[in-house]
Structure formats: structure tokens, C-alpha cells
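Dear H.,

Thanks for agreeing to be a second pair of eyes. The structure we're designing against is below in C-alpha cell form, covering all 109 positions.
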């Protein structure tokens, strides 16, 4: 999916200035709690996601465990407590508009 950019040309004193809006940024994405611990009633939350993003979760061996769509962006959750997932380190990959961010999350059951 292409990132749609809004382009605005401003002509000031004969000088053109290009301003681009709508670029995807992952700098404000927050994943918590990390580590997630058994007995927690709080699911794993992915906050500040870009619109039309998707989260893929993998084992450390590279096996895909789950895909979570986040089409409207914002915050989505992963209910770890109600899934049969072993304790360990997992890799998450957040993708949107041809860009991605990877990180690790620890699950302690």
C-alpha cells in the first residue's frame, strides 16, 4: 500500500518550499507491558500505531504466532493470557505503508 502524501507548494518571495505531511512514523509507538507476566489482567498493548498498519508476532525461531490488524491505527491489544503461548522472547513487526518497525517482547508464564 502506498503512503499518500499531501503536497503543498508555498511560493514566498519567488522561492518554492515543499512541505510533506502524512509520512509514517514509528517513533511514538509504545508496546507495554514488557515483559508481560502471568497473572496480569492487562493484555499487551500496541499504542500510537499508524493507520492501516498490521502487527505480526513471531517466535525467536521465526515461526509466525499471530497477526493483528490495526486498520484504524491508534491502539490494539494482544490478549496473551487467553492463548496457549510458551514463555519466551517474541519478535513483533509493525508494518504500514511499506515501512516497518521490529522489536522484542518477553512473555513470562
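And this is the sequence the design step returned. I haven't edited it by hand at all.
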Amino acid at each position: 500500500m502506498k503512503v499518500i502524501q499531501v503536497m503543498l507548494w508555498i511560493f514566498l518571495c519567488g522561492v518554492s518550499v515543499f512541505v510533506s505531511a502524512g509520512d509514517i512514523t514509528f517513533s511514538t509507538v509504545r508496546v507495554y507491558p514488557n515483559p508481560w507476566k502471568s497473572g496480569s489482567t492487562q493484555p499487551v498493548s500496541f499504542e500510537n500505531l499508524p493507520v492501516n498498519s498490521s502487527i505480526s508476532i513471531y517466535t525467536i525461531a521465526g515461526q509466525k504466532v499471530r497477526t493483528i490488524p490495526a486498520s484504524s491505527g491508534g491502539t490494539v491489544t494482544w490478549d496473551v493470557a487467553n492463548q496457549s503461548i510458551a514463555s519466551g522472547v517474541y519478535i513483533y513487526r509493525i508494518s504500514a505503508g511499506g515501512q516497518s518497525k521490529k522489536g522484542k517482547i518477553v512473555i513470562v508464564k
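Two observations from my side: The beta strands are 6-12, 15-21, 30-32, 36-37, 44-49, 53-59, 64-70, 74-78, 88-96, 99-108. The chain has no helices and ten strands.

Warmly,
E.
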